[in-house]
Amino acid sequence: MTHGQVTRRQFLAGTTVAVGALALGRPAHAKGSVTAAMYPGTWEEAFRMHVAPALKSAHDVDLEMTPLFAVDQIAKAQAARGAPPFDAFVLDPGPRVTGIDRGLYEKFDAKRLTNLGRLSAGMTDEWGVTIAAQVVGIGYNPKKLPKPKAWTDLLKDPWVSRLGMTGFQTTYGTVSIIEIAKQYGGSETNVEPFFTEIKKVLSKVAAIGAPASMPALFQQGQCDITYTNTQTVATLRGRGVDIEFVKPESGAVSFYTTMHVAKGSKEIENAYKYFDTVISAPVQTALMQPPNNFIPVNREVKLARDLPMQSLDEMAKFVHHDWAKINPLRAGWIERFNKEVAK
Amino acid sequence: MTTATAEIAAPAARRWSAALRPAEWQLVLPLALAYAAFFLVPLVLLILVSFFDDEKITTMGGAQWTKFLGDRFTWKVIADTLKLGVFTVAATSLIGVPVALVYLGASARWQGVILFVVILPLLTSVVVRTFAWIVILGREGVINQTVLWLGLSPAPLRLLQTEHGLVIALTQIEMPLLLLPLLSVMSRMDPNLRDASSALGASKWRTLFRVTLPLSLPGLVAGCMLVFASSTTAFISQFVIGGNRLVYLPLLIWQQSLVVYNWPLASAAALTLLVSVGLGVAAIAAVGRRGHAWALH
User: A338–B255: do the CB atoms touch at under 8 Å?
Assistant: First the structure.
């Protein structure tokens, strides 16, 4: 080796050290960070805008988000086998129950939340905390169709020929189909009457689409009536789409969105601070405003006028479902739906 | 060892040692390891997982395969998936080959323009392209507004969520995959061959069918294989444009893996897709070889 010259080995070693240092060197955090799985779109934008700054200023914790739908979070956590790619889940009831079944969450200690007293009873359990509510009913275009009254109207003229629907892949799709089935004599565990009825009108249905494409299909006039949640209706209205939300006669469906600590998370402390921030009154108030349109769970939040209820106590009057009963049947329903609607 | 045999053996040994010189095989090692780690191992895992009977992957058995392949609906879905691939290959070829011929006859400047237009779809995300097709094919979309304005139909045509609508969209989405290999082969073609054909008295059509097309066949076959493999597995386009009434294998895989978490069944469906698309691609290659042999005769 000669002085003043770098051998290949030295060059390689130097490069490795430099690249390694770059990879390891993370920005310095005072109190660290928390990685949260987050629904893409409205949710992610709203959390970036309101939750991340609030968490930073209240607890000096940075919020990092991984955009994933509920079903994808369960699949990823399950595939990761104890080394979760994120610290906190945000889930709808179906995937939540699957996560409990498969042991994907740390046990939850509600007493660690300083805002616990501001939530209604039953908003926390041994697995997680409720952070928002969703209300599902009928969304329709009042310029194109008369106002529907009941779930059964969806399968009748003139609505059925403008109906856009999804299958059992989503929470809102599943609960809506259950409610339609109930009106024809079915129940939470028996959707057979829905299949009988849909077969009669299948050729008239305007669109049976991918869940993610439904807002676009409505916006483009491919369908003018669909089952959906209040948040989607508010978001579409915000974009100038003619759409109104209707609570069906038999009642709108409500379900809760919950958050959970991922099993094996290294940032449990920060995950609790994150949940506490999400349910705090100022953040919940901000999340309720357009264009976010969340339904809050903190009792101190003064409800916006266009929400489908005057007070959070009314939530008890909405239709609720037991996902522990629904989940085992869902695979069969999805298969059945494929076969019944396939051309 | 005699001198003569040593002279014969020496170059062979040199070739042998040259082929296996450590420095060179070491160069291939990273790719080979990456291939083994990120393709072979997952593939073996996929095969293993498909042989579990329960969703929680605890009991081994062939129940998922029996269930999946024993269902007539599965075979309909496989047939529909392959049919979609064939239609898309046919449509892209029908439009792509004339475009390639225009490219062949164009000046260098225009060739650049055509190439840019061909690559253009690749510059936008497939999700954006797919959602754009909702706007084009929709009830109140560009095509339907034109049709109604021209009075060609009293009511809007149903294009979204139909097989022909999906084939139209996939034709645009997959076109670069057909054209890039085709153009690359065509541009390497010796122009003297076509001139010679004309000079020997062949008409333009005869030159096209006896010289240009046979010589571009390898590019066309490569393009068709890419389009077939890509269109049969294009989950986003199939689901967003085709909707839930057109059921293809990727939709079944998604439902089983991400909605109901039945990974054994999802694995069986994924392997079925892999095998059926592989067979389709092999069939295109075989047709291509036959066609090439026939054309050279």
Answer: yes
Among candidate residues A276, A317, A281, the one with its CA nearest the CA of residue A302: A281
Q: Which residues of B touch A220 (CB under 8 A)?
A: 134-135, 138-141
Would the pTM of this model clear 0.95, i.e. be above it?
A: no
Q: According to the model, what pLDDT value does residue A2 have?
A: 41
Chain A nearest C-alpha distance from B277 (Å): 21
Domain ranges of chain A: 33-133+254-315, 135-253+323-341
Residue-wise pLDDT for A11-63, tens only, equals: 556 555 555 555 544 444 457 999 999 998 889 999 999 999 999 999 999 99
Residue B3: the pLDDT is 47
pLDDT (tens digit per residue) in A298-319: 999 999 888 888 888 888 889 9
Contact B139 A221 (CB under 8 A): yes
Q: Do B261 and A330 touch (CB under 8 A)?
A: no
- A74: nearest CB among B76, B139, B261: B261
Confidence of residue A232 (pLDDT cuts 50, 70, 90): very high
In this predicted structure, the answer to whether residue B297 has a pLDDT above a threshold of 80 is no
Question: Cβ of A212 and B240 within 8 Å?
Answer: yes
Query: Which residues of chain A have a CB within 8 Å of the CB of B247?
Result: 338, 342
pLDDT given at position B12: 56
pLDDT in tens, B61-78: 999 999 999 999 999 999
Over residues A261-273, the mean pLDDT reads: 96
CA B187 to chain centre: 21
Is residue B118 predicted with pLDDT exceeding 90? no
Max CA pair span of chain A: 90
A216/B134 touch (CB, cutoff 8 Å), yes or no: yes
**CA gap A217, A208 in Å, rounded:** 10
Task: Write the CATH number of the domain with boundaries A33-133+254-315.
Answer: 3.40.190.10
Q: Between residues 55 and 94 of chain B, which touch chain A (CB distance below 8 Å)?
A: 56, 73, 76-77
Q: What is the ipTM of this complex?
A: 0.83
> CB distance B239–A210 less than 8 Å?
yes
Cβ <8 Å between A220 and B140: yes
Confirm or reject contact between A342 and chain B (CB < 8 A). yes
- Give dist(CA B83, CA B1) in Å, integer: 64
> Could you check whether A33-133+254-315 and A135-253+323-341 share the same CATH topology?
yes
CATH of domain B65-123+163-296: 1.10.3720.10
- Given the candidates 3.30.420.40, 3.30.1490.190, 3.30.230.10, 3.40.190.10, the CATH classification of the domain at A135-253+323-341 is 3.40.190.10
